[in-house]
Amino acid sequence: MDVDMNINDVPALARALMDQHLPAGHRWTFALDSAKSRLGACQYTKRKITVSRHFAAHATEAEVRDTVLHEIAHVLTPSDKHGLRWKAVATRLGATPKACGTNPYLASEEVVAPKLAQVEGQEYVRVAHRSMPDRYRILRENAKTYTLIADDGLTRGASKALVYPDGGKRPTRGEVQAAMRQEALEEVKGKPIVRVTVPGYESKRYALTKPAKGRNRAQLVNLDTGRGLRVTAQQYRLETGAERLSGLLPSR
After folding, report:
1. CA 49, CA 63: separation in Å to the nearest integer?
2. Backbone region of residue 50 per phi and psi (left: phi > 0; alpha: psi in -120 to 50; beta: other values)
3. Which 3 state secondary structure label does DSSP give 37?
4. I need a surface site. Which of 26, 39, 221, 246 has the fewest CB within 10 A?
5. Are 203 and 248 in contact (CB under 8 A)?
6. Per-residue confidence band for 2, with pLDDT thresholds at 50, 70 and 90
7. Residues 6 or more apart whose Cβ sits within 8 Å of residue 167
C-alpha cells in the first residue's frame, strides 16, 4: 500500500538514496524546486538533483523514491538522456525506466484555481488539431504559440496558426501551413543565409537561427517552405556571394 510522503521528509530520503547509489564523496546535493509540471531534474553543472515541491507535497513515498532514482540514473549516465544505458541503470536502481513524466497532481486546486481566475470572462477558442478537441481559453501569449487552459485546469501549448475562435471557421490545412510558414519566415529576417552540404539539400537556401555548438546541432529554417532542419556543424556553410546572385550552387 502506498504511503503519503511528508514533504519535510523528502530531502532526507533523497540524500539517503544518493549516498546509497552514488560513489563515495560524490558532492551532489538535493533541493526542492518550484516546478509545477515536471517531477524532477538533474543539474549537471551545479551537481544538484531537484524534485518539484508541488509534486512532493502530493505524492506517495513510492512516487518520490522513483523520481529521485530516475535522476540518480541520469547522474550515473551523463549525456545518455533516456537512452539504453540510462534505462539499464534506472532498472538496476529500481526506477521506472521511462522518459520524464508529467506531474499527475497538476489539477490540484492550489494550481488550477489561480490560472482559471486569470482567464475568467475570456472567450473560448479551439485548436485545429485532432489531439486537442476541447475548448480552451488563452492563459498566455508567447512569441509563436499560445499557452491554453481547459476548464479542468490543464494547460497545453499550441501554435498561433492553429488557434481560432470557438464557433468560428476552422482554418483549412492549407491556411494553417501558410500561416506557419509566414511565422517562420518573419522570425528569420536578418539571419545569416546558409547552404546545406548533405546530398539532396544543396540547392535549397536556409536561414541560420541557431549555430551548432559543441554536441548541439544547428537549427535552420528553409526559406521556401518555412520548415526547420537540424544539422551538424560540418553539414552547413555560409552562402557565397555568387550563390546569392544566381540562386544556384556551383557544379560539383
Report:
1. 16
2. beta
3. coil
4. 246
5. yes
6. low
7. none
Question: Which grid coordinates belong to 156?
Answer: 497545453
Architecture of domain 7-93: 2-Layer Sandwich (3.30)
Residue 211 makes CB contacts below 8 A (sequence gap 6+) with 218, 233
CB-based contacts of 19: which residues, under 8 Å, 6+ apart? 26
Q: Does the pLDDT at position 81 exceed 80?
A: yes
Asked whether the beta carbons of 251 and 213 are under 8 A apart, the reply is: no
Q: What's the topology of domain 109-165?
A: SH3 type barrels. (2.30.30)
* Torsions phi, psi for 80 (to 5 deg): -90, -10
Residues 82/70, Cβ–Cβ less than 8 Å: no
The continuous run of DSSP H or E covering 85 comes out as helix 84-93
pLDDT higher than threshold 80 for residue 209: yes
Domain at 188-246, CATH class: mainly beta
Where along the chain do its domains lie?
7-93, 109-165, 188-246
Does the structure show a pLDDT above 60 at 218? yes
The set of cell numbers assigned to 183 is 511565422
- Kindly state the cell numbers that stand for 26: 560524490
Burial class (CB in 10 A: 0-12, 13-18, 19+), 80: middle
